[in-house]
Give the backbone structure.
Amino acid sequence: MSPAKQIMILIAIGAVAFAGYEGWQRYGQDLAQSDAAPTRPAARVISVVTAPVTLRAMETTIEAVGSTRAKRSVEIKPFADGRVVEVAFQAGQAVDAGQTLLRLDDEIERADLVEAQARLKDAQSALKRAETLRKSNTVAEATVDTLVANVAIAQAERDRATRRLQDRTVKAPFAGVVGYSSVELGAQIETGDTITILDDLSIVEVEFFLSEDMFGRITPGQKVEANAAAFPGRKFDAEILSLDSRISPISRSFQVRAFIPNTDRILPAGMFMHLSIILDADQTLTVPEEAVVVDGNQSYVFAVTQRDDGLRAARRNVSIGRRSIGYVEVVDGLALGEDVVIRGVQKVRENSLVAPKSAQQETVTSEATGT
């Protein structure tokens, strides 16, 4: 190989080596710059719905259970023995005071009444004739006195016959609802037999017991809310009627009666009721119940706070008190007017960036979109 070619090859090798060195230097600088200043991804913003901490009237209540009983209840029994010729009611029927419920055969009693009325009429006629004759001294005074006594006796017999006839018809002593009956048409019944039970359900009473420490806090006229499993979602307004003057030495409790207006007679006697007795009410801080997260023995909410870089969620441990429909009392941990997250709570963490929307705005948006 000639010296000229050798020189050219060396020059080419040197050029390639220099280019490779320059490329390595630039790659190292780029890598160093990349390590020194990495690109930071944008922080995620979470959409949430919020509601403010508000003042709301919360009631202090105590709970109890009891059973209803009719305002008045009586076993209907006949006043006489006899054969049933008419049953004039059906179970569950509402009846008026004085309405006929049952009739017994009364042919003999009607005949006795006719006879008694005839005897009374004869006695009255005899007395009238004697009084006329007495004016002319034709009849002695003693005779008139005897005839007066006869009229009184005849009147008493007429009254007894009338009562015996009336006793063949059994009537409702007061307005109410009749129950089942085992008496059939044509049956022979006696005075001790029960025909049916009549309940006055225009008002029902509820009997229940409270512990002795409540004795000084319960007074007649106090308001009570009652509900029954048979009518889910319905509340019945009740009122304390009376309380026992004694406390049981065994159970350390006392008996209370409340009454519930029942004009539609929807509540029967014997129904199990759950009662909430309202002791007092006051204004207190509350939040919607969906804002509260329970973790073991600790409850907390996420409050929305303003930071330099935007709105962020801050976890606040709270003490929970009384509960009302849809709301809970916050005893400690929040201030009036603060906004708390009520929807989207499961997506939020401490210090999360949030985009809040009020519950009212959420409602308007839902109505506008039809969702």
Notes: The first helix runs from residue 3 to 36. The chain has three domains: 46-57+283-369, 61-69+201-282, 80-189.
